Serine/threonine-protein kinase PknH (Mycobacterium pseudokansasii), 173 residues
Amino acid sequence: MSHFTTALRAATAAALMGSLAYLGTATANADPTGAASDVNTLAGSVSKGYGLNNCTAQTITSGELAALSCGQNPDAAGPALAKYILFATPDDMNGSFKASIKDETLTACGDSGQSPTTWRQGSAGATAGQVACGTYQGAAEIIWTTDAKNVLSYIRAGNSDVPALYQWWRTNG
């Protein structure tokens, strides 16, 4: 084999290995918290008092596009913590909703009836998603979906007062 052929093969092999190494780097450097545009989209769906200034992007799992975790709401009557998740599909969101309420001690959501139930937004009265109210490990929780946005949301109080947290959610959620 000529030196030219050997050099050509070596250059081809080096180029191929370099592109594979680059491909591996691109995959390894993918943001575990999702694309910035998805995080920003999700930030537009958080409850009053929350935003990117007091919520942190979280590592996402299969089916999720973005997740935000938030601490105590600035409103003293607000939740002690909250979590918001943007899903790729309605099926992923609905499956996560069902999984998230399975260990809850479910109660009525105000005058909306026993959990889980549906909730409505605006004066048109169209169903906006599902909602569940209850307690988990002694703390009140409200978990809901916003179907038009594929968002699952969760707020948790520092106490067991489900009616108070539900009322806060109706005003600020």
Observations:
- Confidence is low (pLDDT under 50) at residues 1-29.
- The chain is about 35% helix and 30% strand.
